[in-house]
Amino acid sequence: MKGIVKTYYLGTPNELEILHGIDLDVYDGEFLSIVGASGSGKSTLMNILGALDRPTSGRFFLDHLPMEDVKDEGLSKIRNKKIGFVFQNFNLIPRSSALSNVALPMLYGGKSRSERNLRAKELLKLVGMEDRSHHRPNELSGGQKQRVAIARSMANDPAIILADEPTGALDTHTGRMVMDIFHRLHQEQGKTIILITHNNELALETQRTIKLLDGAIIENRMNGKNQLEGCYESF
Amino acid sequence: MNLFENIRLALEGLRANKMRALLTMLGIIIGIASVMAISTLGSAMTGSVSSTMDKIGGKNIMVSLTPKNYDTQSTLQPEDYITQEELDGFKETHADQIKAISLSTGMGSGQLNSGYIHKDVSITGASTDYSLVNNVNMVQGRFISNRDMESSRNVIIIDTTLRNKMVGINGDPIGMDVSVETKTTTETYTIIGVYEKLVIDNPLFNMGDDTRVECFIPITTAMSLNSGSAATPPGYENFTIMATADTDSASFAAITKDYFSKKMGALSDYTVDVQSMEAMVSEATTMLSTLSLGISVIAGISLLVGGIGVMNIMLVSVTERTKEIGIRKALGARNSAIRSQFIIEAIIICLIGGLIGVALGAGLGSLGSTLLKFPTTPPLVPMIIALCFSMAIGVFFGYYPANKAAKLNPIDALRYE
Ligand SMILES: Nc1ncnc2c1ncn2[C@@H]1O[C@H](COP(=O)(O)OP(=O)(O)O)[C@@H](O)[C@H]1O
Ligand SMILES: [Mg+2]
Questions:
Q1: Confidence class of residue A234 from pLDDT cuts 50, 70 and 90?
Q2: Which of A35, A223, B21, B78 is the most buried (most CB within 10 A)?
Q3: A39 within ligand 1 shell (Cβ under 6 A)
Q4: Transmembrane stretches, by residue range (chain B) (predicted)?
């Protein structure tokens, strides 16, 4: 993922402008955090980054591909193959087991049943949830649910993981555990991770932090030069 | 998104909401069950009608002289009777269409005595072809021959029950003499044959519970006895024509009526009445199909209501699962995948409803026809049609809710609480 330039305005029918022309590049393999007050437009921005939503105006390139040219079905495919979502409230399918939840993106990606189960088991193992694969979400704790959700986000081996306040509903300890998984995915698998968080300490662990205020970027800062691999530059 | 996965999903959803699913299916169940019940019953009835037709002669045309006006005292004049010559002429003219003509005349009841056995019987005078036309099944000896007719012999055909009584199941009564006492006469007859009584287990053709044994004597013998002191009637009042297999009995009945009506004088009190077995049966069949049509309309309304019920529950389900739909979309489900998930769910609901309906309807139909004493096997083709139809209802009424689900905006769906 290289060279995203985008400026956009999101207007609701009553012309409520949430994001006021945001320019942002995110680089391949980067671990970026987005901070900002509640309601500042972080989730809105992430939905656009994740091809769940389209900007009202402005342009968004993903892998040099202008997203305005991609049809809805194409966006589904991009979400399926290139992006993994992790949500604050987990968003697991309540009636399905952990294993089926993890396998779901692969189902939509057209993988065979045996392939899905094999990979889902591997992923659950990766997040330390292999012994809970047949539990339903309501039989799991918050931290466990979030680990399942992370495993699910990895299902189709996407390049980008978008995490919207993944630790927001977790206590410090389990939040730490989840954060460690993200670090591992970043370092071991070279995933591009964009993390929305309220926690400044967690934001400082990432390579770069962007601060939003009322739909505008007010800060774009490198964290700890020792973490830089020199593969990106800031605005 | 594969079919199997969708089916599994749908079943999971239904299991989570069993009562709701059952109530939703109710309209479909009732609709399909009533269609199945009526078609099971209908096919049992038509099946038994045609097998009865085979037994009692589906190609038979009954001809009789009936009074034009029942109020007045009408009497048959000698010239009204259909003579043997006229019959022979008719037979010759339409040799291609006529297989046999059977003549018979009732002599009323009487008592048959043989040794210490006294048995109430009814005596029928019959012609040679009677056994062919009316499917008389001879088990011993022979039926009335032309020679018996010509010489008006005192010979008699008894049935198996009477034989069993007289000489036992393995006994041979041929050649034995019996005496038959009627109101007017007492005659001695020689037994020349034994027949087996035809059992017609069809309530549509209830011939009355005549438990008396019917015995046959030559019609010529019967006529000369009947007339008593008066002169033997110059011909016949009624007879039955057996048409050949490839004759259209309805049109041949009309030809027959024309033929014999010509000979009836305009002044005669009587007219020729012709009825074909096929016409009678087709009348019954028409009645049955009118009945099925009526029930089908009711079933159709029930299916429509059922389908709307399915649509309603699917809309509820889409709303309830808005968030789930959002999640699926975020994970890369295409609109078409969401749509097929919900359509398949609707199909499964309808199909299960259809299966229950088919089982229930076939059960009720079989029970009903067993009670009515029609032999049955629930027909396969209507079953398959019913199941296909219920799936079609699922597609039709599931499409709108499924499309609504498919078109949800993923962001709005994810935000939905
Ligand atoms: N569908 C919507 N219609 C109207 N306003 C919305 C909609 N979605 C989000 N908003 C508004 O946009 C602003 C930013 O929301 P969001 O991006 O969720 O903020 P954050 O994630 O930073 O808390 C909020 O004020 C919210 O009320
Ligand atoms: Mg948010």
A1: very low
A2: A35
A3: yes
A4: 21-45, 291-316, 337-360, 380-400
